[in-house]
Structures are given as structure tokens and as C-alpha cells.
Write a structure and sequence with these properties.
The chain is of the alpha/beta class. The protein is built from 10 helices and 6 strands, in the order H-E-E-H-H-E-H-E-H-H-E-E-H-H-H-H. The chain is globular and about 45 Å long. The N and C termini lie far apart (66 Å).
């Protein structure tokens, strides 16, 4: 049995939160155990609770479209949520629920060891970009200790605010570039940074 499957068995037995009593199925996560990119959402919804799989409802269909737009699919990435059980009536996760589930998520990250973690929504964003506002940092990336962290709106945001759909699509299209930059040796990245002001200087003399 793989390390992830062993972890899933442990997660399914978890009853630390009150919502464990109302869940239909635990939703641990799914995808490639050696995935280079890990997407972290917020919490399971109705459809996820019924099937035990993440992002299988309307927001999941949009996520599939977003992945396809950058030539990815679920088999090539890993998808999880901050908490593993559906909150009643799809309410927001409570701080204690997030805390109770944090060690499960930490263990998933440890096993998969992705090169990039993409946060989907403000609850997962808060774990990796504390004190930040998603409206200000969506579509941006930070590199820490060799790992890339990218903040994105949750796909469901496009279902509630239609004007965000194009924004989310545009943010996703940046992802391959971020990952390619992160894979370059540090000296190449430095050269790329230095080339920007040089280009600006050259442009000054074109007029």
C-alpha cells in the first residue's frame, strides 16, 4: 500500500470535528503521488461529499477546463482541500476545523513533495500567504526554499461573480511560465532579472 493510501485510511477514521458526524464521505484528495503541482482548495461541497472526490461539482468542471488550458489534467496533478469533510450547508470552514485538518494536509505535502503549490481560494491562501488579500495577490507567485507558491481565486468564485471568470483564466495561463522560471538555475534567473532594466535603458534611446 502506498503512503498516500495509508494516509487516506487514517483520514477516513478521523472524527475530531463535529462535521464528521454529518459527512457522507471523507474527501482526502486525489491525483499523482509524484505530482509536480499540488492544488489546494477549501472544503468539499455537496457533490464531493457524495462521491468522496475533490472538485467534482460545477467548480470542479471549471477547474478541469483551467487545467486543460495549460495542457494538464487530474492525472498529472494532485488536488486536495484544506479540510476533508463537508461543512453543513457549505458554510465556511471554522478555524478549529482547519487546525484539526492541518496535519493531514501537511502529511500530503510531505509525501507528494510538489515543486509548486497552487492555493485556490482565501482559506488555503491564508495558510501560505498569511495577512495577504486574495484580491491583491491573485495570479502572483513566491519562491521559498526551492518550492513555488501561487495564489489563485477559487474556481467557484467565477460561478458567483461572472466577471472573475476571465481573471481566473488569465491567472492560470501564467502558471506554466512561473514553473518554468522556478526550474531554471538560480544564475539564469538572476540574468533574466537583470535583463529587464537593460531593455528599458535601450528603449530610452529608440525614440
Amino acid at each position: 500500500m502506498s503512503a498516500l493510501n495509508e494516509l487516506y485510511d487514517s483520514i477516513r477514521c478521523c472524527e475530531k470535528c463535529e462535521i464528521a458526524r454529518s459527512r457522507v464521505k471523507v474527501v482526502p484528495g486525489e491525483g499523482a503521488e509524484d505530482a509536480e503541482i499540488m492544488f489546494i482548495g477549501e472544503a468539499p461541497g455537496f457533490y464531493e461529499d457524495q462521491q468522496g472526490r475533490p472538485f467534482v461539482g460545477p467548480a470542479g468542471k471549471f477547474l478541469d477546463e483551467l487545467l486543460a488550458s495549460i495542457n494538464l489534467n487530474r492525472q498529472k496533478v494532485y488536488i486536495a482541500n484544506v479540510i476533508k469533510c463537508r461543512p453543513p450547508a457549505n458554510r465556511d470552514p471554522l478555524p478549529q476545523e482547519i487546525l484539526n485538518c492541518r496535519h493531514w494536509l501537511n502529511r500530503q505535502i510531505e509525501i507528494i513533495n510538489p515543486k509548486a503549490i497552487v492555493t485556490l481560494g482565501r482559506y488555503s491562501m491564508a495558510m501560505f500567504f498569511p495577512q495577504k488579500s486574495i484580491s491583491k495577490i491573485h495570479g502572483t507567485a513566491e519562491k521559498r526554499n526551492g518550492k513555488l507558491y501561487v495564489a489563485m481565486y477559487h474556481p467557484a468564485a467565477a460561478l458567483h461573480q461572472g466577471n472573475l471568470k476571465d481573471v481566473i483564466k488569465a491567472d492560470f495561463l501564467k502558471l506554466p511560465g512561473y514553473i518554468a522560471d522556478n526550474a531554471r538555475p538560480a544564475e539564469v534567473q538572476e540574468e533574466k532579472k537583470e535583463s529587464v532594466p537593460i531593455a528599458k535603458q535601450l528603449n530610452m534611446f529608440e525614440d
